[in-house]
Amino acid sequence: MVDLYWGKAHFYPLAYQSQGIAFEEWISMFTLCLAPLIAHVVAGAPRPSFVSRNRPRWHDRICHFNPSSILFRYAAITDRRIRALNWDTSVMAATNALFWTDQGWDGSEEMISRGQAYCTHLPEHSRVELLSWEMGKTIIVTLQGAQPLYCLISILAGSMDVNPNMALDGIFPGLAILGLLRLCSGLWLTDDFTFTTSHSSQTRSMGWRQIPTLTIEQSSQRKASFDSLLEPEFVLTTPPEMQFRPLSYWASRVFRIFYFLAMISLAVLCAMFLVPWSKDSMYTTTSLLVGIQNIVFLAMSILLYGYYSVRATTSTIIPCISSAWYKIYTIFIMTLMIALIIISAVETRKTPCGKFTSLPGETGDIATCATPHSELIPIHSDSTRWIGLNSVFWADDHQQLLTQNFTGSCIGSLLEGQTYNITI
């Protein structure tokens, strides 16, 4: 395959370059590759809370791992906390729960009252404790997103150019920045709760207008089930308008505008990986797929969040999660991630300075190893620059200087205007 050119952009074809990477280096790269994927996706999608006898199918479950679902959930939980009139442990637990009912996924405000009869465990506090696993996950994903944020600020300030020479160990920068958006809801994200149906009781079907109740188990001695923290006859439904301020509340509007602009900023950063700017830009199949993947899920996330914000949706679960098109979109994103991992593993190679890149040949070596204080100079028989290895020895009672040809790469700084001579 031949190289392609379009304006200032230079596209390199897919090539197998990873044959020289050692096994321990593969382990290290795959660890760095999968860390943001596992940390951000798994931390952003808690386990479901089943309040129905039936169970969701696999294509119902995987939609919660879609980055668009995670971004929407972070914003919805923060917005609900801002509008809450009385935020306590039961409200926080129900807000974080992914309820699966007879009608499918339900993250509405009505489930705060309707889910009480199925609650068997509540968190101790109405916010996340500083010394807790949830806070630890927030800190981890935030630190992973700090580097992309630094790059974003540097690019906007003009002190750094976008580096498209990415390799297997850095193909999910968009997911890493999700950790920064998690900060908005970090104090109220928890999985320290349990909502479940009683195994020793029977439950009525949960309808939209029906309050869930548990029947008393028939035995020689009548006794109530201890599976719920609240007995059904004492569960009182409270209308959402008495628990939360309306979406027109000024603080809610400010937050939703801020969150919307934050997602747009992230999309702009990812677009920079695809658009050639002030100088010639080089692209590989890996860098192109990274840019396409980030732009696709961020564009979809922006459209969905903007649409449901206009529609005044208060659910913590994205309303279209059960739609066929959203399931297809989720499968497409996951397939693209798997393809990206495979292709980047094929294209990734190690440069003389020890860094990894997907760019081929000397071009990739120079672009990847160059720093503000040093540069890499390839040396070979056809090179316009040459270097020798000098050695001094004695022969016939005279000191001799021997220069041997050198082939390889030299890393260091060249002092312009200075020439060193040696006299024997």
Largest sheet: 3 strands, mixed
Global mean pLDDT: 78
Spatial order of the strands forming the largest sheet: 1-2-8
Strand percentage: 5-15%
H/E element string? EEHEHHHEEHEHHEHEHHEEHEEEE
Short description:
This protein has helices at 23-44, 58-61, 67-83, 89-96, 111-114, 133-157, 173-182, 250-271, 285-310, 324-347, 361-369, and strands spanning 4-6, 9-11, 49-50, 99-101, 104-106, 119-121, 194-195, 281-283, 349-350, 356-357, 375-379, 388-395, 398-405, 408-412. The protein is of the alpha+beta class and 424 residues long.
Task: Give your account of this protein's structure.
The chain is an alpha+beta fold and 424 residues long. It is 40% helix and 12% strand. It has 11 helices and 14 strands. The strands form 6 sheets. A 3-stranded mixed β-sheet has the order 1-2-8. It has a 3-stranded mixed β-sheet with strand order 3-4-5, with no helix packed on it. β4 and β5 form a beta hairpin. α1 packs parallel to α7, α3 runs parallel beside α7 and α3 packs parallel to α9. The longest helix has 26 residues. The radius of gyration is 29 Å and the shape is elongated. The two termini are 53 Å apart.
